[in-house]
């Protein structure tokens, strides 16, 4: 069952009924000002940090689920009937409805009783404001007298405090209205130099800035008293709940259209400006008003929208493909790339499932997000790498997360996730392969953002690897610490007496649990750092990293191989996890993927046997589950993993993030059919026809899909902000289609399905454009040479071309 369709030409997903199984959201903003917007106008906005600079309120886990947003109400003043053009919050049965989610914009349109309304939401490039462009058309035969009401509910900046500290917050709300512009200037704890504003392009019939005055007592957003009576009260919030609403009268002849522009914005005064109130001449008139006046102009709004669309055209043109499969094309060319940008901006902080309060930017998460983003805007990737590295500790360890506004490590989350440091090596390696910018390695970067602790970024990479080597367990495998990639596998537990409650050592000294997954990740990172070291002229150091990788490979073979698959770990007591010796949790996906990615077992057949075990034990029609058998009861010595019911999240759910590791591993062993089959199983576009089962958006990946042990097998959760986005982009574009940036050139090494006769692609790389044609005339094959501008080149690496050049590459895959 579908709730919409893809419009590939416009790069939009079109939702044609508002009652989607879950709110299907989109993101506004590309740089510092961001917003979430649902297909019915729900969501919220923030500046840089969803916790510390929240502009508008949103109520998670509510009923209806999507409550709070950018609401517009229309009222027919002839009879008092009113409705929401976005369906929510009045949920009036509309005569027509359509929501178009595009790249960093959303347009919702509807018709009710002959009145058509169309609202475009977007954030202009380089601005700290969002535009709502409302166009109202009278499709009746007679004149229509209408009232339009806008509505936002301001958040008191710190979203955590806003939702908990009511004894204070009910006395702090402050607003001011100057020349029809509503300013939200509530200060949080100390006097601040920032405020929000809400402006309208039309003369106002009235306004409200007090939520209670707008809604009325004992009323909700679906029945606001101001809209019902057709009149605002010009309320000014003093304490209580600051709100923003404009009342505009509209008189339309038959067939006439009226355009109204609303602006919701954030303003931060320059450092040298006085801390004057927003309505003052010094700050507001001189600095803010020109911005507001410029963007209230309809022509400026149209130009800004076109600039945004052009911006995305340029970004997406970096990688474009044309394959035999439409689902693949739209994901690679549009939606997967777009999701990679969103995850780069948001990490795991703000979505329909992440409140923006509990998590900032992840150390592990953000490094992985770079893998799918670095080719689009390398300069922003560089900035992110330096930000991440600056939160690293001098031991080589890392805070698990940091706040994007302060760029300081998040002490609430802490560290001790022992895989974290190694991901920095992979993030930097991806940047170097894409750009060739070795100068980044000499950048001075502090530890824990402490002045005076600066060392080179390369030294940070050294310590990332040393952190693992300094923390090896009884079997010579890396200590897991608080957890590794699977945050819920918490194995450092102990009990003084049998039957007593267990305690976790977390990242304290003394935790001896070991991770085979980190061992595989270490081999991969050490090999990457060896290439980086060799490229910098550190030959002895490069050889040392290669030897360490080889030694760890041997340790995995001795203590991490279970006979048919790679083991997962050893717990605090030395009990093996992810083994045929276990009653439950015998095989886990993570080491099967990561060890093969690192090259472990590719030469001796163990990698192939492990991948065959994945197909036999873990694969389902909806994707590959995390482990089998599922844990049927709580095992306190395993930590959080067994607190989930069977088939959900870490307890044998389809954690989509890890599925691409198996896709890549299958491609590495030359099995294009299996790699692509796994890719199709979780491709959201390919799952569009089962939207009533999948439930999440059919245009972006979800973090997890319920596994075969769950009653709701196939149902997705936690869409948008997931490492699934970057890893799937890497799996399909770099390994299945085989277009990989490398240190010394562009590698073209496709491993495609046997029934494909080929594909074409364009790849911009280091200033040159590569036009690629791949042919597979005789079934599954591999490339052993390329034809580059008519000249045969042995192997699969295209030498670097001068910036500005266009390079023609022909590839013929032949059976081996």
UniProtKB/TrEMBL annotation:
Residue span(s) of domain Glycosyl hydrolase 94 catalytic: 311-738
Keywords: Glycosyltransferase, Transferase
SMART domains according to UniProt: CBM_X
Residues in Glycosyl hydrolase 94 supersandwich domain copies: 11-273
GO terms of biological process kind: carbohydrate metabolic process
Cross-referenced Pfam families: GH94_b-supersand, Glyco_hydro_94
Gene Ontology terms for molecular function: carbohydrate binding; glycosyltransferase activity
Top-level taxon in the UniProt lineage: Bacteria
PANTHER family per UniProt: CELLOBIONIC ACID PHOSPHORYLASE, CELLOBIONIC ACID PHOSPHORYLASE-RELATED
Protein name: Glycosyl transferase
Organism: Virgisporangium aliadipatigenens
């Amino acid at each position: 069952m579908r709730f919409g369709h893809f419009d590939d030409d416009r790069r939009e997903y079109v939702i044609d009924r508002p009652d989607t199984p879950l709110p299907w959201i989109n993101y506004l903003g590309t740089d510092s000002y961001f917003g979430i917007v649902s297909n019915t106008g729900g969501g919220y906005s923030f500046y840089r940090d969803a916790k510390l600079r929240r502009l508008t309120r949103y109520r998670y886990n509510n009923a209806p689920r999507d409550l709070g947003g950018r609401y517009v109400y229309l009222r027919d003043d002839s009879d008092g009937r009113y409705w929401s053009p976005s369906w929510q919050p009045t949920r009036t049965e509309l005569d027509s409805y359509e929501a178009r989610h595009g790249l960093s914009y959303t347009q919702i349109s509807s018709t009710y009783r002959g009145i058509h309304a169309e609202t475009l939401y977007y954030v202009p490039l380089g601005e700290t404001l969002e535009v709502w462009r409302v166009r109202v058309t009278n499709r009746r035969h007679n004149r229509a007298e209408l009232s339009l009401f806008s509505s936002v509910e301001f958040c008191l900046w710190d979203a955590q405090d806003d939702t908990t500290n009511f004894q204070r917050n009910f006395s702090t709300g402050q607003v001011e209205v100057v020349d029809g512009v509503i300013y939200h200037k509530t200060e949080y704890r100390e006097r601040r130099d920032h405020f929000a504003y809400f402006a309208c392009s039309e003369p106002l019939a009235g306004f409200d800035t007090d939520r209670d005055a707008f809604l009325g007592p004992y009323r909700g957003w679906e029945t606001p008293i101001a809209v019902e009576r057709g009149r605002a009260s010009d309320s000014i919030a003093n304490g209580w709940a600051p709100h923003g609403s404009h009342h505009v009268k509209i008189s339309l002849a038959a067939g006439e259209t009226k355009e109204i522009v609303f602006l919701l914005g954030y303003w931060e005064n320059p450092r040298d400006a006085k801390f004057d109130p927003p309505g003052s001449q010094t700050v507001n008139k001189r600095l803010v008003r020109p911005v507001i006046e410029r963007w209230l102009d309809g022509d400026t709004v149209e130009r800004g929208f076109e600039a945004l669309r052009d911006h995305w055209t340029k970004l997406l043109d970096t990688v474009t493909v044309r394959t035999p499969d439409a689902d693949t094309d739209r994901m690679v060319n549009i939606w997967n790339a777009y999701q990679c940008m969103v995850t780069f901006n948001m990490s795991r902080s703000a979505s329909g499932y992440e409140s923006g309060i509990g998590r900032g930017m992840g150390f592990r998460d953000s490094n992985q997000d770079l893998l799918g983003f670095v080719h689009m805007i390398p300069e922003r990737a560089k900035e992110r790498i330096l930000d991440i590295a600056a939160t690293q500790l001098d031991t080589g360890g890392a805070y698990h997360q940091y706040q994007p506004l302060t760029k300081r490590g998040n002490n609430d989350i802490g560290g001790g996730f022992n895989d974290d440091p190694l991901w920095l090596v992979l993030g930097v390696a991806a940047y170097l392969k894409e750009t060739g910018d070795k100068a980044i390695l000499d950048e001075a970067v502090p530890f824990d953002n402490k002045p005076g602790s600066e060392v080179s970024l390369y030294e940070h990479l050294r310590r990332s690897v040393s952190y693992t080597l300094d923390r090896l367990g009884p079997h010579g495998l890396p200590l897991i610490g608080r957890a590794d990639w699977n945050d819920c596998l918490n194995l450092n537990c102990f009990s003084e007496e049998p039957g007593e409650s267990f305690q976790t050592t977390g990242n304290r000294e003394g935790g001896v649990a070991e991770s085979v997954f980190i061992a595989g990740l270490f081999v991969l990172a050490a090999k990457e750092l060896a290439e980086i070291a060799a490229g910098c002229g550190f030959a002895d150091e490069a050889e040392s990293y290669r030897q360490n990788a080889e030694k760890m490979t041997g340790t995995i073979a001795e203590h991490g191989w279970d006979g048919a698959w790679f083991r997962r770990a050893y717990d605090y007591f030395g009990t093996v996890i992810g083994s045929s010796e276990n009653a439950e949790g015998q095989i886990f996906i993570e080491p099967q993927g990561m060890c093969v990615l690192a090259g472990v077992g590719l030469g001796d057949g163990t990698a192939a046997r492990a991948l065959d075990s994945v197909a036999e034990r873990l694969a389902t029609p909806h994707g590959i589950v995390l482990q089998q058998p599922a844990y049927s009861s709580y095992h306190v010595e395993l930590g959080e993993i067994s607190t989930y019911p069977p088939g959900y999240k870490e307890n044998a759910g389809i954690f989509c993030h890890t599925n691409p590791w198996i896709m890549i591993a299958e491609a590495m062993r030359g099995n294009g059919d299996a790699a692509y089959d796994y890719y199709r199983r979780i491709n959201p576009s390919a799952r569009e026809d089962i939207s009533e089962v999948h439930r999440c958006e059919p245009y972006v990946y979800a973090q997890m899909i319920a596994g075969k042990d769950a009653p709701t097998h196939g149902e997705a959760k936690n869409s948008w902000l997931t490492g699934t986005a970057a890893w799937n982009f890497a799996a399909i574009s770099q390994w299945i289609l085989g277009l990989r940036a490398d240190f010394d050139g562009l590698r073209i090494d496709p491993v495609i399905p046997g029934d494909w006769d080929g594909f074409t692609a364009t790849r911009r790389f280091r200033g040159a454009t590569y036009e690629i044609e791949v042919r597979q005339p005789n079934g599954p094959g591999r490339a052993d040479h390329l034809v580059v501008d008519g000249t045969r080149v042995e192997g699969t690496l295209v030498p670097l071309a001068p910036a500005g050049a266009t390079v023609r590459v022909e590839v013929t895959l032949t059976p081996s």
